[in-house]
Amino acid sequence: MEGNMNSEAKSxxxxxxxxxxxxxxxxxxxxxxxxxxxxxxxxxxxxVEVRKLALDLTAQQNADFVEVVKKALPPTxxxxxxxxxxxxxxDRYIETEKSFLDLISEQGTALLDFTKERAESASKxxxxxxxxxQQAVERGLAVQKTVLDFAAQQNKAxxxxxxxxxxxxxxxxxxxxxxx
Length: 180
Hints:
This protein is an all-alpha fold and 180 residues long. The chain has one domain (17-179). The chain has helices spanning 2-13, 19-72, 80-120, 125-179.
C-alpha cells in the first residue's frame, strides 16, 4: 500500500509529456491578437504621418503657386480675389483632412488598447467597447462640425467675392450714368 501512495504522489508531480509545448503554443496564440494589433497600429501611424506630410507639401505648393500668379496679374484684375478664396478653401480642406487623419489614428490606438485590455481581462471588454464606441461617435461629430463650419465659411466667402465682382462690373455703368 505504501508503494501505491508513493506512485500516486509521484504521478501528480510529474508533467505529462507535451504539456509544456501545448502551453507555449497557447501563450503564443493568446498574444497573437495583441501582436497583430500593435503591428497594424504602427503601420497605420506611419500612413497617417506620410499623408499629413503630403498635405503639408500640397499646401506649400499651392501657396507658392498663388503667390506667383498674384505677382503676374494686376491686382485690380477681376477674379484675383478668387485666388485667395481658393487658397483658403484648400487650407481649410487640408485642416479638415488632418482632423480626419487624427481621428483614424486615435481609432487605431483605441483598437490596440481594446485588444490589450481584452487579452488582460474579458470582464473589461464590454465597458471598454462601449467607451471606444462613445469616443468614436464624439470624434465623428467633431469632424462633421469642422466640415460644416468650413462649408459655412466658404459660402460666406463666395458671397462676399460675388458682391465684390458685381461692384467691379457695375462701376462702369454707374460712371456712365453719372455722366449722363
